[in-house]
Amino acid sequence: MVIDSHCHLDLLAEKKDINQVLLEAAEAQVAAIVVPGINEQNWMAVNQLANEHAMVSFALGFHPMFLDKVGAGSIGRLEQRIAESISNSKLVAVGECGLDLYQGRENERQQKSLLIEQIRIANQHQLPVILHCRKAHQDLIALLKQNPPLNGGVIHGFSGSYQQAMDYVNLGLKIGVGGVITYQRAQKTRSTIATLPLESLLLETDAPDMPLCGYQGRPNEPKMVKMVLSSLIMLRSENKQTVTSQLLKNSKSTFKFCD
Ligand SMILES: [Zn+2]
Predict the structure, then answer these.
(1) How many domains does the chain have?
(2) Residue 25 belongs to what domain range?
(3) 137 among the known binding-site residues?
(4) Does pLDDT of 259 surpass 80?
(5) Lower Cβ count inside 10 Å, N or C end of the chain?
(6) What is the mean pLDDT of residues 104-129?
(7) Percent of the chain with pLDDT over 70
(8) Distance, CA 6 to ligand 1 centroid (Å)?
(9) DSSP code for 212
(10) pLDDT of residue 204
């Protein structure tokens, strides 16, 4: 069994029949799928997907790329929504939140304060965080050292150096391994993932984005997490069984899934 720890099923639903997607995921031995929130407009959709499908769990948060949708009262509404949903075992994290400096630093301060608020809310409700990071590892690591998430979480879709990854691991976070490792050219990330502690890794697709090598141009799907696992097994020194069972264990302990 495998768990897709990061899948935007609500966005995939705009392109594909979700019942079929989930059926194929189940056939590919996907046991659970975590669907992150990105802004207030999709919280309802991710919550509903989790209510309707046994294998789907959800998270609520503000993605740093959609700051135009964040205004006065947004954090208060996140706080309220999480307080209302906390008894729902399908709510497994706060996120997707983080830093994205790909387009520059013009809204850096707003991104950082929004992230700090979301870490505070996660800590208050004993939830892990799902973190997004692009062109911002040094900033994010510094921010997390100042504002540590107390219940773990994941740096999703990681690509970067061993040292950056270990900085996150030392903060109690997991490293989200996605389709990037299926590309030969991703040498730095592949060798990082090959050598990190096996206990620190989670599998993900980030569907419908981040197509695997050979599947560019089509929407990515949760069933592909099985192929991310196959690539990971080829990179690692441990045997197939050890990698598979440890990765399952890692997801379960991060998101407090029950057996
Ligand atoms: Zn995402």
Answers:
(1) 1
(2) 2-254
(3) no
(4) no
(5) C
(6) 96
(7) 99
(8) 6
(9) P
(10) 98
